[in-house]
Design brief:
The structure holds two protein chains of two kinds. Chain A is an alpha/beta fold. Chain A is built from nine helices and ten strands. In chain A, the strands form two sheets. In chain A, strands 6-7-8-3-9-10 form a six-stranded mixed beta sheet, sandwiched between helices. In chain A, strands 2-1-4-5 form a four-stranded antiparallel beta sheet, with helices on one face. In chain A, helix 3 packs parallel to helix 5, helix 4 crosses helix 5 and helix 5 packs parallel to helix 6. The N terminus of chain A is likely disordered. By secondary structure, chain B is mainly alpha-helical. Helices cover about 65% and strands about 0% of the residues of chain B. Chain B has 16 helices and no strands. In chain B, helix 10 crosses helix 11, helix 11 runs antiparallel to helix 14 and helix 15 runs antiparallel to helix 16. Classes of the chains: A alpha/beta, B mainly alpha.
Chain lengths: ~260, ~375
């Protein structure tokens, strides 16, 4: 993966706003799968406009953590606040949060029975109550931004993996989210398609979107991340700027992890 | 590959010639499939002989030696001696000619037979309209309500100058169509709700749905029909009596619902978890998620087993004969009770069987087309 060995690409200017209230707050979050303690006292604050990259070995709880943010998983202890709203069993609060948080999955999760355009307009029409025509215009706008407007009438199965993931990003953007969560968006892609998806994400970062991104793409992290968070065994072990984390790891666990992923490239 | 051909300079080549007849075409097919060796040739000849014999025997029985009508004595008794003299070497289609109206419409008053006849046509028209995807929207609801109301008016009468015909006198094909149509039309939505309920996170709903499926599926349909016809009235207050047909209808609906629910559940389980998560992450409500994402995909997956169950239940409606309801098969059986027609069961059952076959084959063909059409998105 060439991105990992080209750390000198221009860093995208930060749009982080420290004056605004934080977009996401995780406060001593704990979660168990049965007896397995998968999140241990996770603390994380993400400012509006901040780009956070989460990395760590598999099974470290990084996916679980971001899935807790839009409650695809429920946490059992601690507090999670998104845009000032606390996640709880209150359905109305959850609806409000899910409207404002977009998510992109490792396996795309496009709806195979709907066309690309229908995939993008479904939620704006039914959740945002947008008129159909307006939703379609918006969808075409975002499909143009991810550079696949000509595929709008096709079905997901007719597209390549990279194209599908770009549709998934456009679909999430059509809801005009304030925050975007990326759960290993390039892990299921063939190597030659990773760049087109990362480029789309860089574009999004340049526009000032608040992003949390679980990824092992070090080049991407160096280019856009305001902060890199390293997780291992359910804990946040280290966090800091990409330079601090990648060039000057403090813990043995992070050193081991970095040596492993760098050897892999 | 296209690059290679594009970069290769055009070489002079001989004009293409067609493949020899021994490699393609019907002769080649015969050689490859039927006469590829001495063993296969022998098997082909032996089976061919058997098929020709069987077809010729059937043609002899059904057409050449068949008797299509018999004289009726002045007292109204059919003179079936000619048929009996055949000793089974030919079909006595006269029984169908004479009795087809009884088989189709049972004991419905003879001079009013046009009413159930129209009802049957209305049912077929309803099936055809419902099968067209153009009508798969809200217009289908008034169409169904309107058609079923018309069918009720025609069958019962009592208004619009139509003489009243009590339900006990209905019979034949309309009964089969009523039981099958109402049964499946009500059981299908019920089964979807039960299948969803079985996957619900609310324990009360889940337990209720599991109990329903396991209880109903665990007993034979016949025992349910008996319960509906014999036991159920015992629970009702004195003087209150629910129509026997309605009770059988409820039993069939509940039974079909339990079976269909398991078919639908199979489809729900086949969907990847990511589909549910993507819909949740977009903020769709439970019913939006279910209606737009989950069911459209799950039901497409289970069209073959679904239609299998539909066809099964269309034929299972004939079990109502044990509680004395006159469906098509019972009417056929009763038609040959008369002494002069006794012994001509085969002809009657062939006739009744052909009617069932028409409906079931139509369902089967339609489902194949629907499957291909709805799964277009899977083609690349």
């Amino acid at each position: 993966m060439s991105a990992a060995i080209e750390p000198t690409e221009v860093h995208v200017a930060s749009a982080m706003r420290t004056d605004a209230p934080p977009a996401i707050v995780l406060d001593k979050v704990n979660k168990w799968f049965g007896a397995l303690h998968v999140l241990r006292d996770v603390d994380l604050q993400v400012a509006t406009g901040e780009r956070v990259v989460v990395c760590g070995p598999s099974g470290s709880g990084k996916s679980t953590m971001i899935r807790c943010i839009n409650r695809l998983e429920t946490h059992q202890e601690g507090r999670i606040l998104v845009d000032g709203i606390e996640l709880s069993d209150d359905v109305r609060a959850l609806d409000a949060i899910r409207r404002d948080v977009g998510m992109v999955f490792q396996s795309f999760n496009l709806f195979p029975h709907l066309t690309i355009l229908e995939n993008c307009t479904l939620a704006p029409i039914w959740v945002r109550k947008m008129p159909k025509k307006q939703a379609e215009e918006l969808a075409m706008e975002y499909l143009t931004r991810v550079r696949i407007p000509e595929q709008a009438k096709k079905y997901p199965g007719q597209l390549s993996g990279g194209q599908q993931q770009r549709v998934a990003i456009a679909r999430a953007l059509c809801m005009k989210p304030k925050i975007m969560l990326f759960d290993e968006p390039t892990s299921a892609l063939d190597p030659e398609m990773i760049k087109e998806v990362l480029d789309t994400m860089v574009m999004l970062a340049a526009e000032g979107m608040t992003m949390i991104c679980v990824t092992h793409e070090m080049g991407f992290a160096r280019q856009v991340a305001d902060r890199v968070v390293f997780m291992d065994r359910g804990e946040v072990v280290e966090s800091g700027t990409p330079e601090e984390v990648f060039n000057d790891p403090k813990t043995e666990r992070l050193k081991l992890f970095l040596s492993q992923i760098l050897r892999g490239h | 590959m296209s690059d290679i051909t594009a970069n290769t300079p055009a070489l002079p080549s001989s004009p293409p010639r067609s493949a020899p007849l021994t490699a393609v075409g019907p002769i080649a097919w015969l050689r490859a499939n039927l006469f590829s060796g001495w063993l296969s040739t022998a098997v082909t000849l032996a089976l061919g002989y058997l098929i020709v014999r069987a077809v010729m025997g059937f043609v002899d029985w059904a057409f050449i030696n068949a008797i299509w009508s018999v004289p009726i004595s002045p007292t109204g008794v059919a003179q079936t001696q000619a048929c009996r003299d055949l000793h089974g070497s030919g079909a006595c289609w006269a029984v169908v000619t004479e009795k087809h109206r009884f088989m189709l419409f049972g004991t419905y008053p003879y001079e009013q037979h046009w009413r159930p006849a129209i009802v049957c046509l209305l049912f077929v028209a309803l099936y055809i309209v419902s099968s067209m995807r153009r009508f798969w929207n809200w217009t289908l609801i008034p169409i169904w309500i309107g058609t079923l109301t018309t069918i009720g008016i025609l069958m019962w009468g009592g208004i619009l100058g139509l003489p009243y015909v009590p339900q006990e006198r209905w019979g034949g094909l309309p009964i089969t169509l009523i039981l099958a149509t109402f049964g499946l039309a009500l059981a299908f939505p019920l089964s979807i709700l039960v299948a969803l309920g079985r996957r619900s996170s609310l324990p009360a709903i889940k337990v209720l749905c599991v109990l329903y499926v396991e209880l109903i599926r665990g007993v034979p349909l016949i025992s349910l029909l008996f319960m509906a016809s014999v036991m159920f009235p015992l629970f009702l207050p004195e003087g209150m009596n629910i129509d026997k047909l309605l009770r059988a209808q409820i039993a069939i609906t509940l039974f079909a619902g339990a079976y269909l629910a398991e078919v639908v559940r199979g489809g729900l389980q086949a969907l990847p978890k990511g589909q549910y998560e993507a819909a949740d992450a977009m903020g769709l409500s439970y019913w939006q998620k279910t209606g737009f994402i989950i069911l459209p995909q799950a039901l497409r997956l289970v069209i073959p087993p679904l239609v299998n169950t539909f066809i099964g239940f269309f034929k299972d409606t004939s079990l109502v004969l044990i509680i004395g309801i006159f469906d098509l098969l019972t009417a056929g059986k009763t038609a040959i009770v008369e002494p002069s027609w006794q012994g001509f069961g085969v002809e009657v059952y062939v006739f009744v069987g052909l009617i069932y076959l028409c409906f079931c084959f139509a369902m089967s063909k339609y489902s194949q087309g629907l499957e291909a059409e709805l799964n277009r998105h899977r083609r690349r």
